[in-house]
Give the backbone structure.
Amino acid sequence: MNRQILSREGWIRLAVIVAFTAAFEALCRFGFIPSTVVLPPTDMAASLWHILRTGEYNKDIISTISNVVASALISVTLGFVLGVILHTMPRLRATIEPLLASYYAVPTFIFYPVFIVVFGVSSRAIIAIAVLLSVVAMIESTLVGLDRIPRVLHKTAAIYRMSTPARAVLIDFPAAAPRLFTGIKLAFAYAFIGVIASEFILSAQGIGYAIAYAYNNFDNRNMYGLMLLVILLATSANTALDTIDRHMQSRVRVTR
Amino acid sequence: MKRTGDSLLLILGILATWQVLYWVAGDIALTSPASTAVHLWKLLGTARFWENAAETARAFTFAVGISLVGGVALGVMLGVNRTSGVVSEPILIAFYSLPKVTLYPLVLLCFGLGMSAKVAFGAMHGLIPVTIFTMKAIMQIKPVLWRTAHAMRLTARQSALTIALPAVLPEVIAGARLGFSLTLLGVLIGEMFASQRGLGFMIMSAMGLGDIATIMAIAVFLSAFAIAANALLLWLNRAVPR
């Protein structure tokens, strides 16, 4: 068991990030980068602290987070159900497979204006495009998860004369769970990207909207504070999900 | 033969779903497949469409060039040393899954409005996956290959060309495929937010007019382009011997 807080590489990584931030700070402070372009990192942090303390953007932050969570939940549920259905129909699946394979090559986001026209400028349009972006990742993960269930487990279920529902709950679901989690992780990351991007392009509230608004008003202070907030939110959420994911994947390897 | 049949079936299925959606949602939400095709055909005959398409194509070409060349160079540099690879991988992955739109104002402030900002933003999307794939490919070259190169007394140039390149090529092409589509997305988002030219701008101005037919026609055009490019790169990926 490795009880060190950080590995050697971890320390180097931390040093690289700190050095980069310090160099950035120095370049800004000594005037090589004008403050009209980029704020020094410490000022960004101060601005973020101010934003969180005064709560002036709380409405936007809550709106973004609830849209991300709603989109991710819809994608995970819908993707799981569609994945299970497709898995039971190999013929349909073989036909649809090329669509799934090239889905992420299409810049789906260009369909956002269609949803704007349909739903108006609202959370519904944002959630619709975020679901469209993230649902396919969940479908794919569900299919892979169900494909990779070791055949011996199905034989075991047959020996125990399990009914289909019992097999699904006791064997299939736990066996596919690590892959399903990868799907959840991806769905969340795509939903976050989708929500922020649509807020940024056109919406009435949300962090993305607030950043675009601040940009249009030359309000660099709030803009960089909010930017830092998005970076921190996305990085910490993704890192947390990724850590759990790696843990689950490594357990799969051990049991096999 | 069966695969061609399947693809035809898939296209028919998509068109049928689209038509049903059109019947359900009506004229304000969607245009039917047939009228979209007609509108696209009309659009393809206008000079305005091609001016904007050329603008997007120019920005995209530069951005893809930077993504591929820069990504491979960066990936090789980080990948040859195990420590630098292990150190940089999580940083690259964190940057990869970041909603990069948030950084667009930063790009705009650095590069100003116009072509260079679009190129920079597109390259920001495409560079990272190419780097990650190249780096991982280099790191995963089997040590026995290097020992063989050593035993055969190959020069650095020879081992790079005859050992490293063939070993990493499939991964690099896979990275290029991802980088290609993400760069396209980046350039289009860049045009949608702050631009006076390009297909992304055309979609946004059509949205302002509620001109759903133009949005759909351009979206279909771009999707067809992306799918065709993706199919070509997939084919290339399979053609390269592993």
